[in-house]
Amino acid sequence: MEEIDKRTGGCVTVFDEEAQRSSVFAQLKTYCIDLLGLLQNPNVNKHSSTLPQLLRLLRNSPSSALQPFLDYTLFPLLLLLDAAVDCRSQQKVDSEEKLPKTPHKVNDSVVEGVLQCLEELLNKCHLGSVDQMVVVLKKLTYGALLSPSEAAEEFREGVIRCFKALLLSLHPCSDESCLCKQIFGSPPLLAGRDVQFLSKGPTKYDSEPEECLLAFLQSQTASAAVGHWLSLLLKAADTEAARGHRGSVKLRIEAFLTLRVLVAKVGTADALAFFLPGVVSQFTKVLHVSKTMISGAAGSVEGLDQAIRGLAEYLMIVLQDDANLSGLDMSRNILTDFNLNMDKSTQSILEELRHLPVKVQGQTIIATEGSSGEVVNTVTLKSGLVQMRGIDSGNVIGSLHVKRTKDWIEKTSTHVDKLLCATFPHICVHPAKKVRQGLLAAIRGLLSKCTYTLKESRLMLLECLCILACDDSEDVSADAQEFLEYLFSSSRKLHVERDVAAMFDRLIEKLPKVVLGSEESLALSHAQQLLVVIYYSGPHFLVDHLLRSPITAARFLDVFALCLSQNSVFAGSLDKFISARPSSMGYLHSVAELKAGIRFIGADQAIMKAAPSEFPKFLGIQDKEIQYAPENVRKDYELPRMPPWFLYVGSQKLYHALAGILRLVGLSLMADYRSEGSLTVVADIPLGYLRKLVSEVREKEYSNESWQSWYYRNGSGQLLRQASTASCMLNEMIFGVSNQAVDMFARMFKSRIKSEQIHEHEAGYADDQLYKLEHSVLHDWKVCQERGARSQLIDCIGSILHEYLSPEVWDLPLEHKPSLQQPNGEAGDITLHLFRDTAMLHQVIIDGIGIFNMCLGQDFASSGFLHSSLYLLLENLVCSNFQIRSASDAVLHVLAATSGYLTVGHLVVENSDYVIDSICRQLRHLDLNPHVPNMLAAMLSYIGVAHKILPLLEEPMRSVSLELEILGRHQHPDLTIPFLKAVAEISKAAKHEACLMHTKAESYLTDVKSKMSDVENKARMDSGRCSSSHYDDDIDMFPIESGVRLMHRVYALLVHGLIIHALRRFTPKNAPDAPQACTYLESY
């Protein structure tokens, strides 16, 4: 007969086991005799090595070899422990309970060794009877009563560890009808790092005790001892916290973990309900202290984690829905709705068994009055132990039992709700990841087990869960999102819909107050909660709340208009304002694209004097245009961006949370099949501010009112800022419809659920079932791809762009001009605010053009939006405001990337006819468009495409030459320099083209000759008439060479003619040396 030794991994026979037991007993006998001698004379040196050797023997021996000698080994260890406690205790106990006083004090090293041996023995052996457990508990209780001044830290920690080992050695019996089958037996919220504690203790009974120890622990006979130990463990943890930095973090953690094991082993609401007020209040005190303590035992991260999980586990057992059916006054069918995964028939049977009269091991439940309201630690050790064994019936203190009526459950849940609301929201933002993970486990357990009993706390628990779903730690956020997805799955969604609706309304109502308040972390948490609620509720939920009536939609958008408004734009600190102030110098990446060309064209003399053979080298430099991949563009020019004024309101993180909500609004209107045409209806609400602004500007122009007085008029400045906020909101709503936004939400609310399953063991379930999700929340947030929906989106963007590109919007001033100056200097400061507000509006509108392009893709150009907005973007490249220039530069790069062009130059060349047409149209009205010369020079210089669009520049150059005449300079003297800049850019392009023309012509001629030679050789091989080929060559090559020369000459004359025409118009008074340049160009 053989069996495997699980600890050593070896194969041993029964005879080997007997021999091993004999060997172990022989050694135990020696060590036990030495321990008894040590008890009589603790200071004898010859016994100093006994305890380490005994500990080594206990660790190396299997459980089967130690179990028969448990009593034999326990006897000297408990005697030494009792002696150590007795000589340290400063309290006097009754003589009948006291051992004779030992003549010598047992030192700390001996006691520490005794406790280590006792812990190892309890880990490997199980107690054989209730009497044996009572004796061990009695000795450990005396040790746990010692204060820090009486016993060392190692002593007190060793006692608690021994008690934990005793609890872990208790296992359910084989009787299927025993009460021990009602409990899980281990802490339900045990973290993965603590699973090792589940494996401690013997795995089975070789011979079961006559009485089930777990059932005895759950009985009312043991209630006093259970309550006393709950009080001792909480007091031990609190004592270490009160000692400050001298307190032991390890002991505090051990006390909380042992308490969790004790609660799990008791495991029934009947046995623990009486002690709930004291336990919950003590745990709440721990959570309160953690808000102010960041160091020492009170600030221990591990200790706080254990306290959070312990509190949740206690509430999950006492206030579990299943255990309070009678008190909840509800039918089992309703409860089954809350726990659909439980089998109804099994639940009914278990519930009937729970309510049967209990009589275990001959004990009788005695009910007396006046005990339910007493504090736990008023139960004395002596009375608890006497009642525990039923020795002295006269000392019975009364039943430690609470009848959990409906009134008791309501009052208890109300008090618990107050305590949880005062602590849990603050722990959500605790800096330690481990604490937040513990809180998440607690929330999952409470929402799973106490859905109805803690109905007043459900809203708060859901809000905390939403905050954790946006946690910075991926582990925390992913776990929270998994549980949220489970809660919002179709099988449980009905249970949370009412809570979610109430939470949605409450968050919307409080959002403006917290955003405009002084505590940004609170505002961020509220915004994140709202974002998570909307996402997991789905688009139908949001549409139902938005489109119930136009008033509801307007009220919802007004809340966000207030949150994103500029009302507090200058309310920030001066340091923050100065640090955020942009530099007066800026760098545009569009200029970097032209550097290669500048290096080539800038050396004019070297180019003109260079030999034709050197041209290919320069040509290679020019061909190396700066290219960028779309992914790099998205990194450098990320859209959408935080509006410039929000920097003084909140952080980037807060804006992303608020913007995410608006993006979900736009996405929901396109994802819900019932909301056809709703996007335009909702977009018209903020678009009304822009329309009102356009109307106000038109009235101002009609009445010839100055900008200062218009801005000074009541409401005009506010209207301008409201238009900026409305534009920002429209941009975010439209961006929500894009594929980039859908991908962003998929990354933000990533789910690690495999095969759409949730493992609910960590959520506090006694069984190890897997619960399948019926659908994924992400599947709801998909943009409708039907043709009608796309047309609706294009129409909506078209109506927005119509207001964005309105001339009245771009007529708003950006800088001080003489026409704005008024005799009354009081309006000067207001004018400065006007410039700033206008710049912000223009910047947001330009960003919106790029966002709309990202959303529509190729449809942006096919719908005509690219042609109508490209000129505006090029025009703003020369704006006096750097932020606007930078925004235009960024959007141009985005347009180029999304349209499939390598650079902005390629984009402009492909659409140059529309750009030049707009330039020509505005050149005819320079009084209304004085910025056109600068815009023309900027387009040719910054983008670097002048040499590619020279054939289209004939009409603009004629208008330029007219403006450079004496009459034109007299009418627009301030435009002379900008026109000369444009002429200079075109002259550079002409030089560039002239230098490359000869090389291109020769290359073309060589290519033609090569092709003609191939034709000639083929003809010679086919016909064999070699003589005629020379004749054909003489005839054919002459017109080709003549055509190349003619093309070169005509094209050069066309290019140079434009420049010469302009220079000659301008020569008489401004360029005395220009005739020589013209003569040189003509001769060339």
From TrEMBL:
Transmembrane segments: none annotated. PANTHER family: TEL2 INTERACTING PROTEIN 1 TTI1 FAMILY MEMBER, TELO2-INTERACTING PROTEIN 1 HOMOLOG. GO terms for cellular component: cytoplasm. Residues 25-173, 218-472 form the TTI1 N-terminal TPR domain. SUPFAM superfamilies: ARM repeat. This is TTI1 N-terminal TPR domain-containing protein.
